[in-house]
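Rather than argue in generalities, we have chosen a single entry, letters for residues, whole numbers for local backbone shapes, without further comment.
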Amino acid sequence: MTEQLVDAYGRVHTNLRISVTDRCNIRCFYCMPADNVQFMEKASLLSFEEIVRFAKVAVRLGVNKVRLTGGEPLVRRDLHKLVAMLKAIPEIHDIGVTTNGILLADQAQDLYDAGMRRINVSLDAMTAEKFKQITRREGFEKVIEGITAAQRVGFRPVKVNAVAVRGLTEEEIVPMGEFARRTGVEIRFIEYMPLDADNAWQREKVLFGHEIIDILSREIGPLVALGQSDPGAPATDFQFQDGKGRIGLIASVSQPFCMSCNRFRITADGKLRNCLFSLEETDVKAIIRGGGSDDEIADAIRNSVAAKKEGHEINTARFIQPDRPMYSIGG
């Protein structure tokens, strides 16, 4: 019988997030500095073989779902080869990726052929002008091309992640809802979280989930709550009453889902983190490259998960923002 990774609060961890790079081809203000970013040296990144070794140990402990993240994971050369290597692990039932979509049109077919079936595309605006304001780069049309390509090759579902920021993205909510109805993608609105490189996050800038639902219901049509298809999933799902268009809501700030969280993550440079907001890391790369055994890696995973805190504490005076911004952790 497969072992289970259970923390002190009874949460069973089956979901592993693997960052493959901290590099990115855009500069979203809530994730990265605009300029002069110091990226990791290539030699410090885990190789595909090291990632697969870690994943094989993780599946011994009950992991069955993997998501590749970055930075922007598609800038990592030959990512589809890593997907195929992970797909060859029988216990992994689900492989996904979170991407900004700029390189997706060129890679969608290779990723699908390698065995990937789920894809999340980050897109916060439905105009090129607002896209550039948020990302500080060009590329809106390429993202739309990438989403279209992903649907064409067979990805189901294609989810679009949109960070909601008060005073900036309110006017994008209705166009996003209409995009979902028109194309069949699922739009997932994510409350703005304190993981920016400039430490400029303020609670007053969070556009709350219930406000987003109110806007969509008023401007497009009534939304029916579908709940959560997966108890460990962060999103609460909705569908427009007429059956056209699905909306997801990740209310990380106003309605934290910490007590149902089933995920942990490893950074591109091999640091194990039991929460996106962790203040501690475990250096798994040092074990791997220092000649450590698979049992030592397993112990590191068990110990990290066992030490997981009850929640991220964003809504308390105790909250401390991690030193690592989002791009360096892996989304």
